[in-house]
Amino acid sequence: MKILVRNLDRTTTEAELTNLFSAHGIVQSCNLVLDQKTKESKGFAFVEMPKPGDAKAAIKNLNDKMVGEAKIRVKKAEDKNSEPKKDES
Q: CA–CA separation, 11 vs 18, rounded Å?
């Protein structure tokens, strides 16, 4: 399951996120989104966990948790392709 983590402290690293989510199960991948020019965090990341039960536990336990100087928001990531395109007529 792909999880969206928002409102990250700009100093939070991928390693810290992986460690945080690993407490709830196996982390398949962790991708901190960086600004292409400055290479600094944009304040959000995607974490993938192969077991849905582990992912749901991580979402429940980590949403609204203080990490660094920020209270993170954690939810299931929406699949970009799941919503039908809207007509612009």
A: 14
